[in-house]
Amino acid sequence: MDSGFTFEDFRGFIAQGKFMVVKCGDCNHMFIPPKPICPYCGSRKLSWVEISRVGRVVSYTEVHVPLRGFEGFAPYIVAIVEFEGGVKLPGIVKGAKIGDLKIGLNVLLEFSRDSPSGYFFIITPALGGVSESSGQP
Amino acid sequence: MCIHVYVFQGVLSKPLASIISVGISKFGKRVGLSARELFQEAFMECINSIPKFSPDMIGALFVGQMSGMFEHQEHNAPIYLEWCGLGGVVDGVRVEAACASSGVALKLGVMAIASGLYDFVLVGGVEKMTHLDTVSVTDILATASDSFLEQVNGLTFPALYALMATAHMNRYGTTVEQMGLVAVKNHSNANLNPKAHMYGVEVDLDRVLGSRVIAWPLKLYDCSLISDGAACLILAKPDLAYRYSDDVVHIVGFGQGHDSIGLYARDSLTSLRATRIAAGKAYDMAGVKPSDIDIAEVHDCFTIAEIIAYEDLGFCEPGEGGRLVERGETFRDGSIPVNTSGGLKAKGHPVGATGVAQACEIYLQLTGRAGARQVQDVKVGLTHNVGGSGATAVVHIYVRG
Lengths: 137, 401
Prior knowledge:
The complex is a heterodimer of chains A (137) and B (401).
Chain A: H1 7-15, E1 20-24, E2 30-31, E3 46-50, E4 54-63, E5 76-82, E6 88-94, E7 106-111, E8 119-123
Parallel strand pairs in A: 6-8
Antiparallel strand pairs in A: 1-2, 1-3, 4-5, 4-7, 5-6, 7-8
Chain B: E1 6-8, E2 11-13, E3 17-24, H1 35-48, E4 60-64, H2 77-83, E5 91-95, H3 101-114, E6 120-127, H4 134-141, H5 157-172, H6 176-190, H7 205-209, E7 213-216, E8 218-219, E9 229-236, H8 241-244, E10 249-258, H9 273-286, E11 295-297, H10 303-312, H11 321-326, H12 343-346, H13 354-366, E12 380-387, E13 392-400
Parallel strand pairs in B: 4-5, 4-6, 11-12
Antiparallel strand pairs in B: 1-2, 3-9, 3-10, 6-9, 7-8, 10-13, 12-13
């Protein structure tokens, strides 16, 4: 039986424009991809929570030799972004040059049908630039 | 029960299994040869160097191979047995752990010997890659990353390691020149290894730094090679080893570790937890410390990976890896020579063959048979083999017999 914490559930939320992650009721860790067992403490006391779409760049690269299916995007920037609760996601950064990127930069998760993953990251100066690292990258 | 204990330069180590012979195919673009033929090439070299040993004494084969997609051929273990004249009663097991496939196969071979159920085991690894175009190879290799969130975001393997490089540079000040020196070192070693893919190719720092970007900040010469190749070795029960070979190397410790399949989900991008776990287990089992290691083959799929490996294996402090190579410590004449074979970077990286090829180099070095690249007075060796971006790592420790 579907545990209610499948990747298809996550994709369904993304398609609805909701950034939902799984939160553990015992150790309070948040994580994605969803799993019915907390990867940090083994608890099964889990729930979906909606979190802020504003995150902080943890690392980034510009891909010149693309993966099959991404030829039309190349070269493209992929960043790992950390969100509320330490949740991290990789994603393509839309509308930016490699020189615009910086570790600590604030970015916004934007949902888009044009993206193979269902979302892009966008840089928005309105978010106030660079955040100090909350932990080690 | 009697447990044999050997003391090597003050180190207390119990041989778990002993390597009595190795064989390596030429690595490179092997046009017109398939995986099974490359495996047979390595096997013949392995068998021919121990004339007192008969192949019918082999009880099992553990063979690492990442993907049948390269040749549209799964169900591979019986094929290698058949092509080596071993088809029938020998147990054949193919092991898949991405680029750590044959490192894990080696561990299973050691376990099979240590279990007492087998006297002699053949361990090997192989991959045939160069007949496909780069996009197809990149696509197959990417299957070792997370299909949920990495593949759908266009992340190639160079891109995953580039994400580690960016984080390492930002946190520790590691430079593209330091990464480039890893490539220069490994190419200079490969130039002394006739089996290496890049044997005969001179590479200096300008060539590395001037090469085209693959995934910023990694350039072409920061990346290991798409190669064809195979490697194998024969493991024996330690008390039987000297009957068949004068050149014996004992495996005295191993460890395997894992982490999340997705790089993004990990606590750190500047260290591989799987390596730290694997190394800790291996050092504990062997009863040795990082400072006891005389020579190592580490998983340099990208130059940054070698720098991170120095740190995770304890050859230097976290963040000091770039400076370790800059000081020349990991060159052949340094305090801890690393990747004397040329490494994945320049010997080549037929992914499934890599883990066993690393063991073969340590065997050659510890038995004084490494030819022009021989390092003097080496007694304790280490191999470090990583799967994917670090969801698997396996470490072995060796001592001269």
